[in-house]
Predict the 3D structure of the following.
Amino acid sequence: METNKTYMPSVDTSFTTDDLSTVMKGWSVKDDILGKDIYNDNNDNIGTIEDLYVTRDKAISYAILGVGGFLGMGRHDVAIPVYQLRMTDDQIILPGATKDSLMAMKAID
């Protein structure tokens, strides 16, 4: 006997006050991170955050930095572990990095 049922997994759609509090303490990827310039500890502009990689357990693991180029042409994209980035009120800093050191890294596609 054939059945025509489609089984959908149960999804938890609850959102608690604690969840909302956690979200409000974080950053908006679109507004606060993507497209933002990256500086080193000498306040030199060394690149731009082009993308973020998120793991299945909700952790952001790598930031993709675009280095060099003009209007996206000739840009050299590299992956940097996010734990190396430091966020201040007005800047994102990659301590110890230079444009040259990032350009020397293997580019990612």
Remarks:
- Residues 6 and 12 are 19 Å apart (CA to CA).
- The mean pLDDT is 82.
- Residues 35-103 form a domain with the SH3 type barrels. fold (CATH 2.30.30.240).
- The radius of gyration is 19 Å.
